[in-house]
Each structure stands twice: as structure tokens, then as C-alpha cells.
Design a protein that fits this description.
The protein is of the alpha/beta class. Helices cover about 30% and strands about 20% of the residues. Strand 1 (about 1-10) and strand 2 form a beta hairpin. The protein starts with a strand and ends in an 8-residue tail after the last helix. The structure holds nicotinamide-adenine-dinucleotide and zinc ion (2 copies).
Amino acid sequence: MRALTWQGTQDVRVETVDDPEIVNPRDAIIRVTSTAICGSDLHLYDGVIPAMTPGDILGHEFMGEVVETGSASTLQKGQRVVVPFPISCGSCFHCRITQYSACENSNPVEKQDMSEKLYGYPMAGIFGYSHMTGGYSGGQAEYVRVPFSDVGPIVVPDHLEDDQVLFLSDILPTGWMAAENAEIGPDDTVAVWGCGPVGLFAIQSALVMGAAEVIAIDHYPHRLELAKKLGAKTINFRTTDVREALMEMSGGIGVDAVIDAVGMEAHGFAIDNILDVAKQKVGIGADRASALKQAILAVRPGGRVSMPGVYGGMTDKFPLGALMEKGLQLRTGQTHVHRYLADLLAKIEDGTIDTTFLISHRLPLEEAPRGYKNFKEEQDSWTKVVLKPGMAASSGSGSKAIGGSEPRSIAASTLSLVQNSARPAPRW
Ligand SMILES: NC(=O)c1ccc[n+]([C@@H]2O[C@H](COP(=O)([O-])OP(=O)(O)OC[C@H]3O[C@@H](n4cnc5c(N)ncnc54)[C@H](O)[C@@H]3O)[C@@H](O)[C@H]2O)c1
Ligand SMILES: [Zn+2]
Ligand SMILES: [Zn+2]
């Protein structure tokens, strides 16, 4: 099959690799019809997440059709499913209390050392997200193996298009959990740093939860425009002093809750960020937490800090004093996607939530490298890239979706692999 592989910093390529196989009775194989590039993928692309190996198949936001099932899978061939990005067993302590992204059974023992040393506890498995999270092949591919297929995938009704439900795999639940972690009440003013996909869905979620006012912060005019269309007020941090503006907009008190939807690669010329860029470049493990620091300083005393943005290592000059002296609450984490699926699917079906406005580009899988490059370098207009493995490569860069390819048998595509593969494919 064809799959997008990581080869090194800012070097991703579509290659021919082995087809996935059922290796556990609870597995299923999915033929991917849609898969998206995430801001989290950019951290891998930029080489700031460790434990990547050339040849790793990327992609943790995907959906498709069930084409094979293990004997203990509860899925049936032909079903359309969206797959959550964390891999969860459904029966360990953390899964039982719905903390799915802390599953204890999905990261194989031999992959646990690094995260255990870094974080004091091994991470759970995540599709296509480094060997620290299990080294699982991701879904930016024609096919993908889904472990614990009796727990994660949600079957979606045929009347909903891929574009309407694909983001259940990650960014919609992530935006929702970010808003939930901000404990939004009806009179609250909430500020959201970052108007990428996660920030925009956090804004949408905060408004659905009844926030009185949402203020969106970014520096890309088009992304800010999208936030405005959702109902947010906006601040461009290149032209406006963010803290001053927030004080003014919140009657001199400060906002009640802040959401950092930026993560470890903050932009901007704040002095701490310029230093962090240099430190990150020389690989001494410093995350660029400029947006988070700004958020902690801007929130009112007693306020809430929600941090969906991904961080990997350590950060310097963290305003610990502000966190303590202002009595703030900080909540964060990889999203417990499974927890939110049924509720969010219902909200999509009844029209409360629309996710399709976000998609700026639909590309064939073969053009994934261009998708990565532009999602990173043309962020203003490339707001979300959806890759369609079934889209003919020649149909190019248009933003119109076409249907998926006809299902083909795994055996047939394995045959083509034997004939075409340039080099042995990695397997995890
Ligand atoms: N917790 C989770 O489970 C989870 C899931 C998905 C994504 N994420 C993380 O959420 C973050 C955002 O993801 P995304 O897909 O929206 O990424 P993205 O890169 O598309 O968007 C980030 C946005 O932040 C803006 N930004 C950068 N520096 C800023 C600053 N100093 N102030 C304000 N805005 C700033 C950028 O201009 C950009 O629009 C990433 O760190 C990603 O890894 C977390
Ligand atoms: Zn993602
Ligand atoms: Zn578990």
C-alpha cells in the first residue's frame, strides 16, 4: 500500500510499504477514506518530538471502512468508522475511569522507557506518533491496523459525509475537552490563544457551553476571521498588546479562563520566545511556551488555565509564582477522545456543531508532503488539510472532495507491493 512516512526533520515522503495485517484478535484493518494533518503532526515534522525513526508512518486523524476484523473485534466489514487517536484497551484502571489517553495497556513494554523516564509514567499508545507512544503505524495511508477495535472506533451513519465526522478522531473532542477543562460558566469571558483547528473548535465549544464572551488571539488574519465568524472577538498579537487588550475587554478584571491552543512551537518576537527558539533548535529540550506564559499572566486571579497545546519536555522561565499567587487552576492532557464521541456525534447530527468550515484543502495522499509544507508555511490560508487516499493524484490541489476508491483486497495490494517496493518497509 501507499503511506506517508517520516524520513527526518521536514522530510516526509509517500512510499510503498507492507500492508497492515491482523496481529491480535481484537484488531481491525481499516481502508482509510479521509485522514487529516494535525498541528501535532507539525511537531513531528519539525523534529521537536523525540523517538521518531525514518520510515515511520504518520497520521492519527483518520476514518474509513472496515475491511478485515480479528475474531474478537466487534466491528463488521463494510462499516464506516472514525478512529480516536489514543489507543485504549477499555479495561485498565485508567480506561475504566474514562481517562482513555492514559491507558496502561496500549504502549508495548519495550517502548515505555523513554516516557517513563521523562514523565514518571509510560505514555499510552497513539497512532503515528513516535516510538514513545508505541511506534504504531498511523492512518495517513491506504490502510491501517486498529488495535482494540472493540473499544475505540465509532460507527458513523451513512448520511453524514466524511468531512462532517472526521474530526471526531481528535481535534473536535480536543477543542471540547479544552473548553470543559476551562470550566466555562454562563457569565465567563474566555480567551483562546491560537486559532488553528484546536483553537477554533475550543472557541466553538466554549460558545456552545454558554460562555458570555470568547476572545481569540493569533496573528493570521484569515484564521482570526474564522474565529470572528464563530462569534469570537479577536486580537492580533503582532499589532496589539495582548494583556492590555484583554484587561480592557474584561472590564479591568482579567478574563475568567484561558485556553492555550498553541503548544510547544509558539510564534512571536517576545524575548522569551526568541531565546526558546534558539534553545529548541540546538535540541536541549526546551519547549517554546510563550503563549502559555502569556495566558497565565493574563487570566484573572482564581481563574482557570486549560492547556490542550502539546508540550514534550521542559520549559524555561515558567511563571510558577503567578500560577500560585493568583490561585490558578491548570488542567491539560492528551484528549480522552473516546469519552466524548457519542455526545459530539449527536451534536453534529442535530446541527449544533459544524466542523466542515475548517477544511481549506483536500489533497490526494500522494500530495501529502505538499500538504505538510503548506500547512506549516502557509498557515493563514491552509487551515486544515484533509488527505484522501482514494483521490486520483492527477486531480491535484482542488478543494473539492471526491469519493473514496473502491475497496480492494489486501492480498491484491500486497502483490503490488512485492512488485513495486523499493525498499523493505518498516513494521511496528
Ligand atoms: N491535547 C491533545 O490531545 C491535542 C490534540 C490535538 C492537537 N493538540 C495540540 O494543540 C495545538 C494546536 O493544534 P492545531 O492543530 O490547532 O495547530 P496549528 O499549528 O494549526 O495552530 C496553532 C495556532 O497557534 C497560533 N500561534 C502561534 N503562536 C502564538 C502565540 N504566541 N499567541 C497566539 N497564537 C499563536 C498559530 O499562528 C496557529 O494559528 C498543538 O500543540 C497540537 O499539538 C493537542
Ligand atoms: Zn491531531
Ligand atoms: Zn486501558
